[in-house]
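dumping this here so i dont lose it
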């Protein structure tokens, strides 16, 4: 039976999962593939992690030596970051070796050059584990929907944020309390900025948009808002209005343009995305052929992500064993799409204002909104504290994003407004 050698770079959380599962399921994989996958070498800077590698697997702190080894046919990059990882992936691709990676930051920042390098050297770059952990969404887009135009994707792509939001929703915790609970459970880093500020979700949105539109997008192309500043009060108001709040990646056609954005949004409570709770991820995909598809599962974690990595190793091994040419799917349309300016996006908003409770206040707010072409669909005020600041919630009709930004700049400068307005988009079209 033909044997394909695997070189593993990084023995952290995901790498240790690959190092455990690949030898443990070697016979199962051989039976299914007709090829034996052999973990030949592994590299990590940590002596402690190297010592924990499976018996019989040579380890080193020299990752380049693993890439260059003659008995390594497939390189698995699980180091993370965009520095050393970029150099090592480039090194492997220049040698014509297929690379499997879970590195979303690397692909978002340098995907265009790396995929071009792969094409020039007859190699392939696999990245199933970079979005959604063990959820096979990349494979579905590259292969299952290769005949379709993907019209839109709405994704809950960060388990940390989803855990925080659903904890606030279910328990009435503050944002700080829910974040602390996520950290205690191991779902959030000591410095959670990458997750809660939306950057992790934005990396994944870039990868998905680049795939379905067949052109490279960057982080600079994505409008990104995180979940800092959300209050338990917003959760309560959303629930009363028939919504829940989720951090969404939105990738959708807008005429001849496309929108790529990340932000918290009010989602109708009856919608299937509202049922996605805890650390789970989900992606709602609509294409012109298959219609609506839903992908759901654990978006992170050692075993789910390692499973996705090994599935790509199996893909690479099958191509190598068959002596086939590398596959370079360009799923999107041939013509490049222009990115829609976020200010031109048509949206509805939930606005929570702190207003001085006195006669004429609503008229002042309505006048400013009306001057910018924004009409009010409904208004909610519970407290009655004359002469004090009270929360007031306004649901608007659809208007351009620019109109809201200009109107809110005016509103927040009014003496009747006690704090910066909380604004959340409402997503009804899903």
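and the seq i came up w/
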């Amino acid at each position: 039976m033909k044997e394909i050698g695997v070189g593993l770079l990084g023995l952290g959380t995901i790498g240790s999962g690959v190092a455990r599962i690949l030898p443990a399921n070697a016979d199962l994989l051989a039976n299914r593939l007709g090829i034996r996958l052999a973990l030949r070498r592994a590299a990590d800077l940590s002596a402690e992690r190297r010592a924990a590698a499976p018996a019989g697997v040579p380890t080193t702190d020299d990752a380049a030596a693993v890439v260059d080894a003659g008995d390594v046919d497939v390189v698995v990059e699980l180091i993370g970051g965009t520095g050393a990882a970029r150099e090592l992936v480039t090194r492997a691709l220049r040698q014509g070796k297929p690379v499997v990676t879970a590195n979303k930051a690397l692909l978002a920042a340098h995907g265009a050059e790396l995929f071009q390098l792969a094409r020039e050297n007859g190699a392939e770059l696999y990245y199933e584990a970079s979005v959604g952990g063990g959820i096979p969404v990349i494979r579905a887009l590259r292969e299952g929907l290769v005949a379709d135009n993907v019209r839109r994707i709405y994704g809950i792509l960060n388990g940390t944020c989803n855990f925080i939001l659903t904890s606030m929703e279910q328990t009435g915790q503050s944002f700080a309390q829910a974040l602390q609970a996520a950290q205690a459970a191991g779902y959030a880093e000591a410095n959670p900025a990458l997750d809660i500020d939306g950057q992790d979700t934005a990396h994944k949105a870039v990868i998905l948009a680049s795939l379905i539109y067949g052109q490279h997008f960057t982080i600079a192309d994505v409008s990104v808002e995180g979940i800092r500043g959300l209050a338990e009060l917003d959760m309560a108001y959303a629930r009363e209005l028939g919504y829940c709040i989720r951090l969404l990646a939105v990738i959708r056609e807008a005429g001849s343009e496309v929108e790529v954005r990340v932000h918290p949004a009010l989602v109708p409570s009856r919608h299937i995305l509202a049922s996605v709770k805890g650390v789970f991820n989900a992606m709602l995909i609509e294409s012109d052929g298959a219609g609506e598809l839903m992908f759901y599962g654990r978006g992170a974690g050692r075993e789910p992500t390692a499973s996705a990595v090994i599935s790509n190793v199996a893909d690479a091994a099958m191509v190598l064993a068959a002596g086939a040419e590398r596959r370079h799917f360009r799923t999107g349309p041939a013509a490049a799409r222009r990115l829609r300016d976020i200010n031109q996006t048509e949206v509805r908003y939930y606005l929570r204002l702190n207003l001085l409770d006195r006669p004429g206040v609503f008229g002042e707010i309505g006048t400013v909104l009306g001057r910018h072409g924004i009409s009010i669909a409904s208004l909610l005020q519970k407290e009655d504290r004359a002469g004090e600041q009270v929360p007031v919630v306004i649901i608007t009709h659809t208007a351009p994003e620019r109109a809201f930004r200009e109107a809110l700049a005016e509103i927040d400068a009014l003496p009747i407004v006690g704090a910066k307005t909380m604004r959340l988009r409402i997503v009804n079209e899903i």
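The radius of gyration is 24 Å.
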